[in-house]
Design a protein that fits this description.
- With 231 residues, the protein is mainly α.
- It has one domain.
- Helices cover 68% and strands 4% of the residues.
- The protein has a two-stranded antiparallel sheet.
- A hairpin with a 2-residue loop joins strand 1 and strand 2.
- The radius of gyration is 22 Å and the shape is globular.
- The protein starts with 8 loop residues before the first strand and ends in a 14-residue tail after the last helix.
Length: 231
């Protein structure tokens, strides 16, 4: 039983290895790219629209509403980044129905890369919104003593994102693999369906946490205005 797609080696020459994580990741990115081009090639801007386009607009509107509920008012600005995170993690789980495929999110290297994307995106959005000085100032608020603790917080939550996604995705795959060896064929099918649902939930949680971190980086501390006494 394999614990990670890193153990699948397709090609190796000395130090360089082409493992399952790399192949499945690039294959998934290619699938998402081609799929997005095919889905959006005949979109209409007029009043007459297809049912498929109406469905896509409902999905996009729903995602934007979720982003706004987290605390990011300009949801369309963050939709490409957060939407891509969600689609990648969700597609990695949904493609498990393909024989021979193993989700790249079952590898710690993939989940760490996704968490690093969030780590880089958080200060970028924060600097864009508040400026470099305003964003860096947040690290020493309310006092300069908080500087090391704020830095540790940035690193620890990034590590938590990677480990959480990796642990949840890998544990689901391991449970299904164990059940395949000790139970009849029908029961693991039900567990596979449950694993698909779990993958969608993990994609949602990962994207929402990324949005929460970005919203925290873009918070603007305004002085409290005292109420004037009534005449």
């Amino acid at each position: 039983m394999r614990l990670s797609p890193d153990e699948i080696i397709f090609w190796q020459h000395g130090f360089f290895k082409l493992n399952g994580t790399i192949v499945f990741t690039w294959g998934l990115m290619l699938l998402l790219t081609v799929g997005s081009l095919l889905i959006t090639r005949k979109l209409s801007t007029g009043l007459k629209r297809s049912r498929w386009q109406n469905f896509l607009e409902i999905v996009v509107t729903g995602i934007e509403q979720q982003i706004e509920d987290v605390g990011l008012p300009q949801a369309r600005k963050f939709l490409p980044f957060l939407g891509t995170l969600f689609l990648f993690v969700a597609s990695a789980a949904l493609c498990t129905v393909i024989p021979g495929y193993e989700p790249p999110t079952g590898s710690l290297s993939t989940t760490a890369a996704l968490a690093l994307c969030v780590l880089v995106a958080v200060p970028l959005f924060g600097i864009e919104d508040q400026g470099l000085g305003g964003y860096l100032k947040s690290y020493i608020e309310p006092t300069v003593i908080m500087l090391p603790f704020n830095i540790i917080s940035e690193i620890s939550r990034t590590l938590a994102l990677a480990v959480r996604l990796f642990g949840n995705m890998m544990s689901g795959s391991m449970i299904i693999a164990i059940l395949l060896t000790i139970t009849p064929f029908v029961f693991p099918i039900l567990m596979t369906l449950l694993g698909l649902l779990t993958g969608m939930v993990q994609a949602y949680i990962f994207s929402i946490l990324a949005a929460v971190y970005i919203a925290a980086a873009m918070r603007v501390r305004k002085p409290r205005i005292s109420a004037e006494p009534a005449p």
